[in-house]
Amino acid sequence: MRGKTAEDLKLLEMLDPVAEAVGYEIVRLRLMGGERNQRRLQIMAERPDGDMNVEDCARLSRAVSEVLDAADPISGEYTLEVSSPGVDRPLTRLKDFDTYEGYEARLELDRLAEGRKRFRGVLAGVEGDQVAIDLEGEEETALVPFAWIVEAKLVLTDELMKRGAETRAARISDEQQTSE
Questions:
Q1: Cβ neighbours for 37, distance < 8 A, ≥ 6 positions apart
Q2: How far apart are CA 130 and CA 116, in angstroms?
Q3: pTM here?
Q4: Is residue 76 very low, low, confident or very high in pLDDT (cuts 50, 70, 90)?
Q5: For residues 161 and 87, is the Cβ–Cβ distance under 8 A?
């Protein structure tokens, strides 16, 4: 899920160690656009504490650019875009489903389960290699194998917006105390 195509996965293999060396985790990587179009390499990343500010994006962008320029793994021209995953972020790692337990999410599977591929509900954590989710209208918590999930994303709710605002406020407070 962190990468969609074979090319994405190859780039992740190359760039994961670079990101980790400068203190970040790649949440998702996508190389978009065809050979005729201007291609765009989109990297969503965060610090281990889940935060990512503009300075972090610039720092990771410089580190990644250095390696990409030297290895030249992408044919033709492309634009590098480094960003935070955002409030209504994609969930791409098993630990994300644990971190965001209690928040609403949408899941899309690579196969039918209970006659459908798309599910929406409240995350209920992780059990082994399965994602637990409380689906609307269901009494029991559903367990979905992580390997079946092709796309997952938090749903933008008031609760999620409140968490994002609290996180930003804490970061700003920390930055102000550090600069004093």
A1: none
A2: 18
A3: 0.88
A4: confident
A5: yes
